[in-house]
Each structure stands twice: as structure tokens, then as C-alpha cells.
Amino acid sequence: MIPRIVSSKTGLRGPAVIATILALAGTAHAGPDGAEIYRDLCASCHGEARLGGIGPALIPESLTRLRGENLDDIVAHGRPATQMPGFAGTLGSADITAVAAYLRTPLPGIPTWDAAEIEATRALSPEYTPAAAPVFKGDPMNITLVVETGDHHVSVLDGDTFEVLDRFATPFAVHGGPKFSPDGRYVFVMSRDGWVQKYDIWSLQEVGRVRAGINSRNIAMSADGKWLAVANYLPHSVTILSADDLSVAHVRRVIDADGRESRVSAVYQAPQRESFILALKDSPEIWEIGTTPDAGPFHDGFVHSHEKDMKEALGAEQGLFARRRIKVAEPLDDFFFTPDYRHLIGASRSGDKGVVVNLDVGREIADLPLPGMPHLGSGISWTSQGREVMATPHLKEGRLSVIDTSDWSVVKTIETMGPGFFLRSHENSPYVWADVFFGPHRDKMHVIDKNTLEIVRTLDPAPGKTVAHIEFTRDGRHALVSIWEDDGAVIVYDARTLEEVRRLPMRKPSGKYNVWNKITFSDGTSH
């Protein structure tokens, strides 16, 4: 039986008073307020809305890059090689848990990041002076950039002497691979928080940077070198910058034919097509965006006649940045392109097949049986026994699939010691190199004969450590491999004898990118 209790102040009786007392007690003993702690200690660096400032964005979309790191521990002890301090001496364990939980809380809505907001972040380096010629000796086309994720730097490596010419700081958490201007002089680097940095290789100096998105996936350079496209998860947009001064040329919200917004998984350059190709994360469409003034017309709706100068059509776009929709059965990710850029293969959402899309006719033409989640973005192509083939690793199975691109048949499945992440080759090399990035054999590297499609050697360069990602020098004489650890290194191999030449100590080196191989779309390089 509940006693009759009357509050002299509120006039509430019985159960109502008890409920009020319990609510007040709960308030008095409530746990720490993570949002309030964030505003007091974190907002000055990471922004009031957690979208980033001096420090990176702290939202669920950005925190996925921690890859298993304990967020509570980072709040307590900070992050090495960054300006992030530890708060263990300031906050109790309950406070740390509360603020970490707040950081994992989704944003209340999709934030805006329009041209004016992007432009407000643009900063050109006042110290930058463009050099009339390279300030270093050696071949500027044989420069290799090494992304060091351990302390967020890029090393500029002479591809002949392997001397480090410069080492410059990048935005936090570089992602998606740097992109070079067509002449190889400038390189553009992007971070997960949407910061785009321009660096002059000849001058060995940063030119400037701008924040083109809040949470971004990758960048692509137009064939003429004028435009740089940025694929964004947040907001749902593609941003196109002037490659000259990083100013905003175009911001487009990504809305499909049914009026639904979509994140952009990736953007790619299609040089022969003079366009960008966009993979949409949430919609069954592929977008092509023209990068020349005469692009299009592209028709979304009814077309009565395609005759020259006829205007009987609905939904046409033409001119610079005109968009074309290619409808597919389901959203596709992680594109591989044939060297002529007439076809792409995208990974299905189920992760058990690849879908071939003919970009000329704008439709799907074949399915490929590729179980185990193919990593098509790392796929490469080469000539094997007189036929053009492509190969892809699989993220969940220890195999490489080799496909004949003339009839889309699976030529061979090469069994490996575990799931891999990257493949590389070179037109002057007889071999394909494949890492075993996931699983207990991550310290191995397979070397495969291009013609026989057999593994000819398995390298074990750093027992117990992650060995991954391969890049070749311009002439293909040397292959560079990363020991993907904080106390790691880049290992230089003789690409024919497969013998180690030297090791260059580096801080968790990940991707390596040779200027010549990238700007010429070298055979065996993923694009």
C-alpha cells in the first residue's frame, strides 16, 4: 500500500510525490554530462558542433578511422605524434566514459557545408615561392611520395637514390591516395575530414589548403588538370575545386532520380572520357560529370529525338560539370576501370559478385562470381599470354581472381595465404606483387608470374609485422614495400631478382605513389 504523502509546496499527493522525489534524486545523482565536458575542454579545438577545427572532426563517421583503438583511452592519454593532450589528470573515469559516449552520438541532422563555408577555410601559404625549376637534383618524374600515417607526414623520396628530399606535415588522417597534376609538378592530398592540401614538388613547399567537406572519401584530378573533385559522405555532395588556387568551382548536392540524397563513396578520373565518375553509396546510380565546356547533353528524362540540334528532350544537362545518370540494379562501390575507361566493374552490396557496366551505353552487361568481397579499387590490369586480364584481391578470402576483360570470364583463382588489400605491377616487370594484409600471415608478400599466374615466391621481410602496399620506380627496376608499423620502414627490392636493396625507416608508412606511374596510368597501377 502506497502511503498518502502530500507536498506542501506542490500540492501533489501519493504516487505523484514519490515519482517527483525519484526524478529529483535521479537528477542529483545523474552521471557526468559528456556534452558539457566536450564544450568545456574539447570544443575550442574540435568545434562546437564536433565538425572539426584545429583538431579533427569527432563524429561517428570520422571515428571509424580509429580501427579498434579505444576512444576512452585516447581521451585519457591523448594521441602520440599529435597535439591531442591526455585528460586523465583532469577528468575522472566516469567523465572520460561520458565524453567518449557523447562523441559516438550521431549528429542530429546532415550538416551543411556550402561554397561560402568552404571558401572561408581556404588558406594559401604566405611562405610559398614557386621555383622555376626543381630545387633538387634528380628526375622529378621519378619522385615517390610515401604517406606516413604514424605521425601524419608525407616523405618525398628520390626514386633513383632513395634519398628523402623533404618531409611535410599533412592534415590528420590522410585517405584515398594523393593525386598529381598532369605535368607531375603538384600533388594534392586529402584527409578524412575533407581537408585538401596542395604541395609543389619542384619547390618542396606547401601551396595551400582548403576544407572541401566534413567527412570525405577521396579526390580525383580532371584530365586537363584544371579541376579537383572531392567525394563527400558529409554533407551528401561532391565538391569541385580549382586545381590552381583551391577556390570553389562547384558544389553539388547528390540527389538521385527519386529525390533521395546519397553519400558519395568515391570519385574517379576517366581521362579518355574527360569526366569524373562517381560511386553513390545509397542509390542505385552511377554519376558521370563532364569536365569540359562541351560536355553533354545528358538526358535524365524523356528523349523524343537524338538528332543534332533537336531540343525535344526533358531533363538535359550540358556544359562544364554537366551530370549524367547511369541507373544500375543496386548501389555499387569500389570501382575498377578497364584501361580504355569504356567499362567499370563495381562491387555489389552483397559482397559476392562484381557487376560490369558499359559506360558508353550506360547499362550493366555482365555479372562476375567474386565471393569474399572483392577489393576492386585495388584491381590492376596487364597482358597475360596475349590477352588483357585484370585481377582483384578479396577482403574476406585468401584468393586473387583473374578475369579476361574481353569476355568477362574468370581465368583463374589464385589461392593465397590470406585476404589481401593491394596488388601492383609494372609494364617492365614480369611479376605481380600481392600482400596478405588480413589475418595471421600479414607479414607475407606473394610474387606472381604474369604469364603462368603462379606464385613464384613468398617473401617474409618482417616476421610478425604487417607488410603491405607496393609501388615501383619509374623504370620498374625497384619495388617499394611498406612495413605498416609505427616503427616501420619502406623496403626497396630489386624487382627482378627479388632481393632486398635497402630499408628506409619510417613512421607507419602506408601508400606510396610514384609521379610517373600515376600520371601515365602505368600498366599494373590501380587508378
TrEMBL record:
**Signal peptide coordinates:** 1-30
A Pfam family reported for this protein in Swiss-Prot or TrEMBL: Cytochrome_CBB3
Q: Where is the Cytochrome c domain?
A: 29-107
GO MF assignments: electron transfer activity; heme binding; metal ion binding
Q: Is Iron a UniProt keyword of this protein?
A: yes
Q: Which CDD domains match?
A: 8prop_heme-binding_NirN (cd20777)
Query: Which keywords fit this entry according to its UniProt record?
Result: Heme, Iron, Metal-binding, Signal
Claim: Nucleus is one of the keywords in the record: no
What is the protein name stated in its UniProt record? Cytochrome C oxidase, cbb3-type, subunit III
Please name the source species. Answer: Lutimaribacter pacificus
